[in-house]
Amino acid sequence: MTVTASRFIGDTVTLTGRSLRHILRSPDTIITTAIMPIAFMLLFIFVLGGAIQTGSDSYISYQLPGILLITVASGISYTAYRLFLDLKGGIFERFRSMPIARSAELWAHVLTSLVSNLISLAIVMGVALLIGFRSGAGMLEWLAVVGIMILFTLALTWLAIIPGLTAKTVDGATAFAYPLVFLPLISSAFVPTASMPGPVRWFAEHQPATAIVDTIRNLFAGTPVGADIWIALAWCIGILGVAYAVSMVLYRRRTAG
To answer: In angstroms, rounded to a whole number, what is the distance separating the alpha carbons of residues 100 and 223?
Structure first.
């Protein structure tokens, strides 16, 4: 390992520890992130679930993948928020006066987002298990679900970096997450797309949430995933690649000089 790579890893670990300590001092951030998805889950199961025909024996098993996506979409708004506050507080200028690898600052926010979102997902999964979720998945299927959720979280986190770097206000930094939270609602997450009217059905069937939801649902059930998994991976990797490239360009411009 080169000295530069070793320094980057060491700086990233140190700065990630700093960000995680901030979260540990205010655990309400993670709890708040988990509350809305749990509320959605309880609403759909106990209020609306009886009126929705999905062809599935267990509605909680049907809608849980969509709830997991909503959990991440609501959680990454805090990434943009924390990055915005760091920039406004001048912490990045302070870091630049120190021998710290420049990109380590961004990666620390990304890794903090990944850890905090995984904790939120674990909380949501725990509630789902308490109210009756059961899975026929084996170890490989569970590992595949975890891998997809990590990739999805990284993709949305790098997407969150963009408003974190460019927003003029706190509201502007966090508002971008609202469309992402509602995107799973217009997908196969809660009702089959066949029940939707023409234009809505077309959109639902060709947006990323549907492929990801269908893949996770089949993995939980222990059934073949078909081509959905490749479509889901293509969406996640595509969003991740574009968001990462744009974020790095914006970050270099923002910290130039």
So the answer is: 48
Average pLDDT on 45-54 reads 67
Token pair 């992402």 is at which residue?
180
Distance CA 95, CA 108 (A): 13
Q: Is-contact 160 113, C-beta < 8 A?
A: yes
- Confidence category of residue 3, pLDDT binned at 50, 70, 90: very low
Nearest residue to 232 via CA among 200, 201, 210? 210
Neighbours of 54 (CB within 10 A): 16
Q: Tens digits of per-residue pLDDT, 224-243?
A: 888 999 999 999 999 999 99
Confidence of residue 218 (pLDDT cuts 50, 70, 90): very high
Rounded to whole angstroms, how far apart are CA atoms 202 and 166?
32
d(CA 96, CA 132): 51
Return the SS3 of 197. Answer: coil
Is the backbone of residue 197 left (phi > 0), alpha (psi -120 to 50) or beta? beta
Range of the domain at 148: 3-254
pTM of the model as a whole? 0.89
Decide if 163 contacts 172 (C-beta within 8 A). Answer: yes
- If one counts the domains in the chain, the total is 1
Going by pLDDT thresholds of 50, 70 and 90, the confidence category of residue 70 is: very high
The answer to whether 245 and 102 are in contact (CB under 8 A) is no
Q: Tokens 């909380």 belong to which residue?
A: 123
Retrieve residue 61's tokens: 């098993």
Contact 219, 146 (CB under 8 A): no
